Structures
1.
Amino acid sequence: MKTYGVIMAGGGGTRFWPLSRKARPKQFLELSGKDTMVMDTARRLEQIAKAEDIFIVTSMAHREMTVELTKGVVSKDHVLGEPAARNTAACIGYAAMEILKKYGDGVMVVAPSDHFIRDEAEYKRVFERAVELAEETDSLITVGIKPTYPCTGYGYIKNKESAGKDYREVVEFVEKPDPETAHEYLVSGEYAWNSGMFVWKASVILKRFEELLPDIYECLVKIGDAMGTDDEAGVIDEIYPVIPKISIDYGIMERADRVLMLEGDFGWNDVGSFEALEEVYGTDENGNVIMSEAHTIDTTDCILYGTDRNRLIATLGVDDLVIAVTDDVVLVADKNRSQDVKLFVEGLSNTDKDKYL
Amino acid sequence: MKTYGVIMAGGGGTRFWPLSRKARPKQFLELSGKDTMVMDTARRLEQIAKAEDIFIVTSMAHREMTVELTKGVVSKDHVLGEPAARNTAACIGYAAMEILKKYGDGVMVVAPSDHFIRDEAEYKRVFERAVELAEETDSLITVGIKPTYPCTGYGYIKNKESAGKDYREVVEFVEKPDPETAHEYLVSGEYAWNSGMFVWKASVILKRFEELLPDIYECLVKIGDAMGTDDEAGVIDEIYPVIPKISIDYGIMERADRVLMLEGDFGWNDVGSFEALEEVYGTDENGNVIMSEAHTIDTTDCILYGTDRNRLIATLGVDDLVIAVTDDVVLVADKNRSQDVKLFVEGLSNTDKDKYL
């Protein structure tokens, strides 16, 4: 059976502003050091699926850029454009229908386009096992990340052993916890971080749509029926924007029975805010992450990121700052508030400064 | 008798880096809001001397720029270029000789090119009186600034009443004090800040050079003898670089007898570091000075200065910072260490980053 890669690249995250912009969301940035995050993701999936079987779903507005940025790995006609953002259930359903109708059933490895993986060999090992399991069992599989600290920024998956098996059974998906609860989760050993990475057959997930999200399934069938006809683009343009907005977690994962989990321990990070760059890059002897031409004096625990290597960031006597510099914006923020960077995006929207978004 | 204005614009200050650069020292910046500091100074002197009698002494490297920046007030041939920086005694002696030889004796009002004056009417009143006094008494006159707080960043002038007179007699010039001494100076009422502004006849100051700085005087005479001849430029190029380096304060003011002082109370500030911008511009309700396109969230007591109004400075949860942004450098410094900004200039000199100086 074929293995497909499906990269979800429709996000428009605001927590890396001003690096991420309306025209260039986070997944199109070189945040993890090698290439753009979406290209790094494609290369990672290429270890599990053939390049010709990798798909990317992104917004129509970013489709052309995505084709350009993943050239050499992903074929142009495998970059699917969404006419509107309708959350992850729609995105995954669309990809499943595209695969089933045009290329034949197979196991889909679904991955967000903007995560970081340190240990790619271990990642490959876990996902190859997930693909096997999906093929053998017709289950929905997710990869839960072994927690390394009581993180309050991720959702968790409660899970239990499956006697004599290498996989675990999902008990429930739970929301981001408060610090105390996060600590309990960590100590209990019964919780994993919800990474948003899934493995299943296209035919199996579409059956779950039919059972659990019939409204969405109906839309997907209309789109599927038009696939390969002259009406395809028109039907997608018409139907897609009215697909109910719901995440795959809420819509299917939390409600389906028999969801299996493999535990992953491969240095995963969702790169959810500037602070995450400390884990992605590591810090120098002063606790700084320096991704810029820089000259620092008495500077500790700061993150310096400049998009132009011909621009110098100079710091003196400062600690715990995020300094992010683009051609037209300089951000200086308390690192402990780097989650709040999205406030700028809210604050500048619909003002005379919205050109900076 | 004619009144001349003499602006000393030879400085190469480092405490406003990265705004001030080798190619564009502080006096050529628009730090006080209206125009460049040197042009503001010229306009201020124009209230006391005729525009056609205003001179500027600057380094040869900045002569052309100075002519350009003060066009409309200062005539091109009144902008004197120093082939080398030889401190203020040389600069003032050269201007005095130029005036005496080419334009005839008169009272020189000598002013640094990079200070800020809030109350220009009071400034005019004090200097007009100083000009009168210089003409009547053949004295060396300085304007001491009435201290408003126990500043440790300025030198002081100890002075005493002159019975029945509006001027005071200088007792001695003293160095920058420690905080305790500065407090004593303030309380005593016998000390004024040394502003580096002087008034005297060209002939009188040259006589003091002859008495107190004969080596320099000898150089000045050689230059004076060549003035108006074909050799002028050549002699200046040859002699000027070997004039002994000494400040007018050390060389003459502290050693001459009968130095008079007028007290000035006109909102003077030498704009010696970024912190001074708080006094020059005043702060907003959050204690910030914002000289840039900016969007601030939970930001207090910061100084934001951007040279390009199309570049946004965005701050979040920060206090007491100086953020100065040019096309190629972003400085983020603890405001309480803004005097130390010169460390960058030292640190970057003779490195592969000296293009940022």
2.
Amino acid sequence: MAINAPIKREFSALASSMKPSAIRLLLKVANQPDIISFGGGLPNPESFPIDDIRRIFDEQISRNGKKMLQYGATEGLDTLNVALSKMLRDREGIKSEPSDIIQTTGSQEALYIIGKIMANPGEYVITEAPTYVGTISALRGSGIRMIGVEMDRYGMKMDALRETLKKYPNPKFIYVIPNFQNPTGITMSIERRKELIEIANERGIMIVEDNPYGALRFSGPQIPNLRSMDGNVVYLGTFSKVLSPGLRLGYVVSPPDIRDKINIAKQALDLASSTVSEYIAEGYITGGYMDKQIPKIIELYKQKRDLMIECFQNYFPKDVEYTRPNGGMFLWVTRKGADTDKMFDEAVKQKVLYVVGSAFYPDEDNHESMRLNFTYSSNENIVEGVKRLGKLFEITAK
Amino acid sequence: MAINAPIKREFSALASSMKPSAIRLLLKVANQPDIISFGGGLPNPESFPIDDIRRIFDEQISRNGKKMLQYGATEGLDTLNVALSKMLRDREGIKSEPSDIIQTTGSQEALYIIGKIMANPGEYVITEAPTYVGTISALRGSGIRMIGVEMDRYGMKMDALRETLKKYPNPKFIYVIPNFQNPTGITMSIERRKELIEIANERGIMIVEDNPYGALRFSGPQIPNLRSMDGNVVYLGTFSKVLSPGLRLGYVVSPPDIRDKINIAKQALDLASSTVSEYIAEGYITGGYMDKQIPKIIELYKQKRDLMIECFQNYFPKDVEYTRPNGGMFLWVTRKGADTDKMFDEAVKQKVLYVVGSAFYPDEDNHESMRLNFTYSSNENIVEGVKRLGKLFEITAK
């Protein structure tokens, strides 16, 4: 046999331009002892209904073991899609047929597939600025450009959107997270939602609504989802925040032509999602476990949000600003003139982690903010971690 | 609010060229009553270790519930990769570090990602002809061309490969399924394996070895895997055929630069695979369940292979040829001058299903063969189904 010669490895253009996610890199540092991490968007493990899942798994494998362990349909388990269709109507006011729904390997896969099927490399979509870092990596993974539109406390600014559409009149879609947005925690007002739908419909632009946190409302009145107001909206949901992210189960509700393209694209990507996960999720909804669990999660997280904001008041310099979300998992902290990228090394030394704000801007051109997760840490660590951040702000102000 | 205007939906070029998988379409017909399907590549549900999985799940969620339900690392559960690294050495003679391994959402995701990171749209790879239909859809999903190289009973023909490389000298990689190939069931001889590695190394071409069926050898001596002969080979394995496809769990063993690109690409696709599935797989290996289960699967499948071949001898016209695989899940049936695409409607009428041979050729230019799965059907259905196929051959010969 010949001596091994050097193997040519010219990566594709897409692969060459890929960058590791800021959050994934962070997770590695987060495992060091004594580190307090407000970085990852992790649910609190106390929110996992471990005993319920054990019971559900046991029931499902006893009753449906042979189907549960077999290949499933690309669109997902039919009884799960039936249960979800009902749940979406009851909880979210969304009218959909089970056949409008496709299960995906987490919402991340839905984001990736929607970008891939809708846009060619170099084409663009419109997002909030800042927006979810996972969406940035999913779309960038297909060479898609993102044009960010400024937000205020009511969500994406509609005058800014109109201006953006003058310069960029043909986006492949507008992507928004209307409830407790990642990273800001901001909820889009009902007026903005109506105006967004109006603008999109006038121009025939598709809206993609990502709603991972909608069920986690701690305070304030529920605001209708875009999809409940307009059947053309492509709607993304997930079990990651109301059951378990370890299942890797999200779903898309979409019009038939989009659904068919998602289905074919998913066949090529991973054939189908986990039927094991799908049977667990189905048992979770139909057994009434979800309706019992969500109030518990809300109670846990509300208290943590309140605690973290209280700590901001106690330990942050007065010129540090922050959002006051009515739900979700994140607080957005901003200090005019700060550079949170430059502060990060010092934060690691102080053994407290956040995600740099720049990671949430497609052009990484904003450095004054940081995203803090309030759901994962113990109360003790929230207090200690915010103290450390307060010290960090003081040091870096010098 | 404005009346909904028609939403512009111009799909991307890749989405417009996508076609639904022949097998996925077939699965829908397969659910009709009285249909005997040799179509899908489904494990027999009797091969699923249901009681073992119930026990493993219960143990893992009791011991590791909070981690099992949480987001996991993109590369997969560390203890699973440690267990796999050892298993690959013991069972397959493959030397690898745990850090060389990445878990994927089934092998399908690995195939998709490797195509995406290695080749730009329009670039080409070399495969066996015929080759796995899922590989065709995964690579086509990134706009990659496939150049097929003819096989005989010893696998890909090396003289044909040398000829192909004259015309197509810069493939991004050579993709092969050396053991019990899908769709033919053919195993590549040791001489061919050595020659393939020699040819690839002379030219610096990467080899991708897909080994979903390697553990399912019923007869004949084990032949070393390409990856055990050459550390540059990218190796794909899966739990779908030795545990459960419902877990959606496969893995890639690759050199560090490839592994890093796979990792980053996977972050954008689905963040990570299911930690629930990973804990089940880890318990399955480390608890010794896998070593107990594989001989049972082999016993079940060997008997079904023997039965199906016996039925061919009894019920097929003498001019029908077929492979005699030493393992795996498939038999490849060929009749000179037949057109299995045209025969398919009549097969549905006769209530027996196969996959048309053309689905396994990138150019769909071969119509004389069909793929039959022997693992899924009951013994009774194998006999009755082959009788129906025999009748079909007689009808269509007229």
